[in-house]
Amino acid sequence: MKDLYRCLDDYPPPLLQAIAEAWQVALAQGTPREMSGKLAEAMLAPGALEGLLARLSAEAHEALAGMVRAGGVAPAYRLFHGYGAIRRLGPARLARERPWLQPANALEELLYKGLIYRAYGTVGDYYGEVLLIPQQLQERLAALGLGAAELKAAEVEPPARIQADGRALIEDILAILVHIRKGQVAAGAGGGGGRGASLPSLAGLDLGPRLQGENHPERLALIGRLLARMHLVQPGEGLLRPTARAREWLRAADWPRWRSVFLAWREDAHWDELRHLPTLHLDDPAWQGNPVRARQALLQVLGRVRPGVWLSLEAFLAALKRQHPDYLRPDGDYAHPVLRDAQTGERLSGLASWDRVEGVLACHLLTWPLRWLGVVDIGYADEGAERPSALRLTEEGRALLAEGAEPAAGEAEPPVATIGEDFTITLPLADSLYERYQLERFAQWQAQDHRQAIYRLSAESIWRSQNAGVNVEQILRFLQRISRDRVPPGVTRALQEWGHRFGKVIIRKTVLLQAADPHIMQQLRAEPAIRALLGEMLSPTACLVEERNVEALSKQLKALGIWPHVSL
């Protein structure tokens, strides 16, 4: 980055005098080198910068703060889109028109006050004209906290209707993991943690009131994507099963778990919300954008919003357009990719299409995934309104956007369950995801609100758990642990009585092996490898075989020269 002395060296005396006037410096005539050197020294004098900042217009202050946040250099086209272009004037015209007296926009105001300068350079993948802040001024502006300024957007009254998801997405991941554990979700092909991985087939899934958030197709698809991205599920025999990592994730504290979900979404390079917009058509289906960079750019602007305050959504989008118009297409090429209006086929290109492309995408990201993730709340002007009118950054959202930060909270207490004589079990939601995941092996979910969940024990739920391999002794130990040994005696007696009912009769799915005569059966049982795969004898010519052993048994029989007739 160029320093202040080198930047001023390129300026003619009339412009140096204009900058000196802005800084309230008496600059004596001399050679351009002498004048620029003295002016730079005066500009770097203690208190000089603070005095100039106090005299800047609000829009110039905003533009300067944006450049400080960007590291002191930004593509010129980006700032021109937001604040207007800087006119190119030669020395004679500068002296004649004195544009610093009436700058055309905020950028000209900053230029003629010596705070920003034009140059050519590289910013990321971009090479071309840039605007820069000299290194010495950039360091001092950053030290003054200019880049940390809050986003200026119109505050509004609390809206009539509010959509606030909070931790509903986390709760629904729990519900779907429980559903998957029961062997009720098929594994689909493609679109998981990376291209070609398995993705849970959640389309059409309806858990009724068990689902805490909305049963929206894109939301269910996002949950499926997150399950695969975080490796919480894996395919097996056409169905999905929870992984060992799922248990680790469920055991984690609430905040790290919430953050892991947010990061899995934010860093997903193959989940592109642009393709989910019903109003847009992409001419080239194979085009690959950079949704991670687009999300991060939007979140950078959102992170400057003061949490808990309702802002006009329209004003926020206007601020985004002014400060980061190229968040979706950072090379400034608004003609690529080729996007069209889905209804009319009209090609949407150039900055004039911003509201219908970048604006629509930003609104979609805020209204859907960022709300589902609990980062923002969304408001509507009246109960029947379809278009949102306001947004509010949540405290959790502020912490998610600030690397390493955590929301303010008291010291976490281990969850304590309350078990009633009526067989209900109540657990607080905070830090109890794993306990509730285990509880649902033998108790039926009943209801929950934002504070607690309610389950119920029954003879039917205990019977199902025993069939799944969870016995009454294990259930009682678990209940004693989560309730701190406060299991009502009546509940203990009922569980023990229900346990005694189990296993007196066995119903199981098996395969019958029938030999042509007793001699063949004796021959089979004489072979150790075959005998290990056979079950209970029913007669001299028949025995049971576990279904899982059929394939191995067939191979052993064929190796012995006996080709079985398999009819399943």
Write up what this structure looks like:
The chain is about 40% helix and about 15% strand. It is an alpha+beta fold and about 575 residues long. The strands form seven sheets. It has a four-stranded antiparallel sheet with strand order 4-13-14-10. Strands 15-16-18-17 form a four-stranded antiparallel sheet, with no helix packed on it. A three-stranded antiparallel sheet has the order 1-3-2. The longest helix has 14 residues, at about 170-180.
Topology (elements, then pairings):
Elements: H1 4-9, H2 13-22, H3 32-43, H4 48-54, H5 58-69, E1 73-75, H6 76-83, H7 91-97, H8 106-112, E2 117-123, E3 126-132, H9 135-143, E4 161-163, H10 168-181, E5 187-188, E6 199-200, H11 217-229, E7 233-236, E8 239-242, H12 244-251, H13 254-266, E9 280-282, H14 291-302, E10 310-312, H15 313-323, E11 339-341, E12 347-348, H16 358-367, H17 369-372, E13 376-380, E14 390-393, H18 395-401, E15 418-419, E16 424-428, H19 433-439, E17 444-448, E18 452-456, H20 459-467, H21 472-483, H22 489-500, E19 510-514, H23 518-525, H24 528-531, E20 537-539, E21 542-546, H25 550-559
Antiparallel strand pairs: 1-3, 2-3, 4-13, 5-6, 7-8, 9-11, 10-14, 11-12, 13-14, 15-16, 16-18, 17-18, 19-21, 20-21
Helix pairs in contact: 2-3, 5-8, 12-19
